[in-house]
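Sequence only, no structure available. Ideas?
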Amino acid sequence: MIMNKDDIKKVIPHRDPMLLIDEVLEMETEKSIVAAFYVEPSREIFKGHFPEEAVLPGVYTVEIMAQASDILILSCERYANKIPLFIGIDKVKFLSKIKPGDTVEVHSEISFEKAEKAIVTCSAKVYNDGVLACQGDVTLAMR
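Reply:
I predicted one. Tokens follow.
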């Protein structure tokens, strides 16, 4: 493990209940990251999505991809201490369910950067027990 939750809080501004990365397992600065998130069954969201067959909402999965990308980007010296603003998603596909009690692993890599505008796109994939659950591109503006 490269970063635990306390280390992550030093890099990104998110806090519970919206901090959706528990640890960083691997990171190649300015290139790629592998992070993990445990889907705690007691999360409030599962009371309504869906009580009879709980599943993590897709927007949470996209947010997991964005937060892993935030950590990667904010770990670059030029973006340190900036606020990451989620400005776009593209090519997102949901391929399998993520349920309470699962631990997902997100792999994200920088795929495009417009440095003069501090805009970065990352291509991300979320795996659940080794199975691809979601993939897509997230674009963030560092402000």
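The longest helix spans residues 58-74.
Hope that gets you unstuck.
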